[in-house]
Amino acid sequence: MEIVNRNRVKPFITKDTAEIREILAPRNSSIKNQSLAEAKVRPGMTTIEHYHTNIEEIYYIIRGKGKMRIGDEVGEVKAGDGIAIMPGLKHRIENTGTCDLIFLCCCAPAYTHEATVLTS
């Protein structure tokens, strides 16, 4: 049985500037085809617009609120919202609230810096 507690995972900054704690991924577990991370965007900050060449993502907002941009569409997001992001679609998320925007990020295949392309 593998159990990884997020408090024991060292955070790192992704290419798009989000602070990530990879909870389960090929780098720290026996998981091979996906990854689960907790992401944090501080108040007033926006991640750098980017896309993933082959990664399908799901964001699930746990705390805070923000604006999600995928392609030319912009939507308000808040705790309890799930967001589907298909490979190749430019996207970014902005924290419009007063507390940290916290969300789970599920990637299949697993997140890699190499599959992330910055567009701005």
Mind explaining what this structure looks like?
- With 120 residues, the chain is mainly beta.
- It has a single domain, classed as Jelly Rolls, CATH 2.60.120.10.
- Helices cover 0% and strands 48% of the residues.
- 25% of the residues are buried.
- The model has no long low-confidence stretch (mean pLDDT 96).
Q: How much beta, percentage-wise?
A: over 45%
Count of discrete alpha- or pi-helical segments spanning 4 or more residues: 0
- At the third CATH level, what is the topology name? Jelly Rolls
Oligomer class: single chain
Low-confidence stretches: none
Helix content: under 10%
In the CATH hierarchy, the architecture is Sandwich
Morphology: globular
Going across the major beta sheet, what is the strand order?
1-2-3-10-5-8
CATH evolutionary superfamily: Jelly Rolls
- Estimated radius of gyration: 13 Å
Structural class: mainly beta
Report the span from N to C terminus. 42 Å
Number of strands: 11
Query: Roughly what is the average pLDDT, rounded to an integer?
Result: 96
Tell me the series of helices and strands, N- to C-terminal: EEEEEEEEEEE
Number of domains: 1
Biggest sheet: strands, sense, closure? 6 strands, antiparallel
Question: Mind sketching the topology for me?
Answer:
Layout: E1 12-13, E2 19-24, E3 35-41, E4 50-52, E5 56-63, E6 65-70, E7 73-78, E8 82-85, E9 91-95, E10 101-108, E11 116-118
Antiparallel strand pairs: 1-2, 2-3, 3-10, 4-11, 5-8, 5-10, 6-7, 6-9
Question: Keywords, please?
Answer:
three-stranded antiparallel sheet; 120 residues; Jelly Rolls; globular; six-stranded antiparallel sheet; mainly beta
